[in-house]
Amino acid sequence: MTTDERNALNTVIATGDVQARPPLTDNEQIKVAVQEHYSKVAERGAEADCCGPDASGDSCCGTAANGLYDLDEVAAIPAEAAAASAGCGNPTAISDLKPGETVVDLGSGGGIDCFLAAKMVGETGKVIGIDMTIKMVELARENAEKLQAHNVEFRLAPIEAIPIRDAQVDVVISNCVLALVPNKPRVFAEAFRVLKPGGRIFISDMVTHGELPADVIADAAQWVSCVGGAGDRDQYLQQIEDAGFETPETISEVALSSGEGTDWAGSVYSLSLKATKPE
Length: 279
Fold this sequence. Notes:
This protein has 279 residues and is an alpha/beta fold. Helix content is 35%, strand content 20%.
C-alpha cells in the first residue's frame, strides 16, 4: 500500500468523508482499515469511566447497551470492556459453556465476551482471546487485571492463524468479526483445527441474502462497519460445512434495517449460529 493510499484510509476512518474513500483493492488495505478503526474503538473503551444507566436511564457504555447483553452482565465487567464492544450478538448467551472447558474468542476486542465466558467455565476452565489489533489486546489485558481474571489471557494474532495447537479447545466463539476478514474459509478451517472432536463453534456475524453491490464491497467505511465484508448467507454456511463441521444450526437471524434509503441494506442480516466438529 502506498503512503497516499494509507493517508486516504486514515482520512476515511477519522472523518467518514465519502469523497475521501479509496477503493479497497487487496486484503492488506482491508486489514489496515480494520486495524485503524478498531484502534480508535479501543481508545474509546480506554476512556470509559462509568457503566450502567445514567440519570436519564441510558447507559454510558456505548454499544454494550444496545440490547445484546443483560444489564447485570454489563455491570459485572469493566466499563472499558463494555465501551469497546462492537459486536452484533452475544455468543456467550447461546454457547452453553460448561465448567472446566477451554474457550477461544476470535476477535476478542476489549474482552467483554471473554470475561462473560470465564464466569461460565469457572476457575477450572480457560478463555483465550485472539485479536490482531495491538490496542485492543492491551486494553483487554488491562481489563483482565482489573477483574483479576486469572483464567483469561489475550494473544495478539490474526484469526486466520490461531496460535494454539491442534485439538486443544472445547468451544470457539466469535462476535461480528468474520465479516471483517476476507478469507473466511481459512478462519473456519483454523477453528476446526484447534477444536477437540465434539467441540462447538458459536458465531454471531453479519451476512447477506445475495451479493452486495461492488461499490459497497470496495468501500472502506462499509468494511469497518462489518457490512462491506459480509458474506452471502448460503455460501457462509457452506464454508462452515466445507471446513468439516456438521450442518450449522441457525439460532437467530435479524435484518439490519428495513432497507429504506438503499436498494441493498435490507439484504444485510445479523446471524447467530452453532456447529459441531464431528466426534
